[in-house]
Design goal:
A hairpin with a 3-residue loop joins strand 4 and strand 5. It contains 4 helices and 6 strands, in the order αββααββββα. Helix 3 packs antiparallel against helix 4. The longest helix is centred in the first third of the chain and has 16 residues. The protein has about 160 residues and is α+β, with helices and mostly antiparallel strands. It is globular, with a radius of gyration of 16 Å. The strands form 2 sheets. The protein has a 4-stranded antiparallel sheet. Strands 1-2 form a two-stranded antiparallel sheet.
Length: about 160
């Protein structure tokens, strides 16, 4: 999952180019889902090498850093299965994907919280935006380098990956 791609008019990156760059990197069975930087592919390389390759290629393309969060099929299924906010609508619940486990005190440093609920995951921070993300003033310093996907997108990514 690429960070800050085709969101709010920033980071314009056509998905055809994303697929081409991933294929050129040697990844196989490359597929994208919606235009917000979701790429499903296969690779035999170590995750750290895949991440470095993706970030280098996209930085060369866009002339600025583009972060990437990698997850396996099992990882995506686990995020979906966690159901951190089981009664919340999936479109109002996001998983913010991080490279590492969030610090235990990550939620202690949140600002602007109103009716949002937050929980820590393994390498995610889950947020339920009760009034919608667009109205939220929530700031999560520990999530600064992460990339968020709502649970509808997580479910679709998990479904696509599981079919492979």
């Amino acid at each position: 999952m690429l960070r800050a791609v085709n969101v709010g008019g920033t980071g314009k990156l056509p998905m055809t180019d994303v697929r081409s760059m991933c294929r050129d990197a040697g990844f196989t069975r490359v597929e994208t889902y919606i235009a917000s930087g979701n790429v499903i592919f296969e690779s035999e390389r170590a995750a750290s090498k895949v991440k470095a390759e993706i970030e280098a290629r996209f930085q060369a393309y866009s002339k600025k850093p583009v972060g990437a969060a990698l997850r396996t099929v099992a990882d995506m299924a686990a995020v979906l299965k966690a159901k951190q906010f089981p009664k919340a609508e999936p479109k109002f619940t996001n998983a913010i994907f991080l490279d590492h486990r969030p610090p235990r005190d990550a939620l202690d440093h949140v600002t602007g919280q109103a009716d949002e609920e937050l929980r820590l995951g393994d390498r995610e921070i889950f947020v339920h935006y009760a009034s919608g993300m667009g109205r939220s003033k929530l700031r999560i310093p520990a999530a600064k380098t992460g990339t968020a996907r709502n649970m509808n997108t997580v479910a679709k990514l998990a479904e696509i990956a599981a079919k492979r």
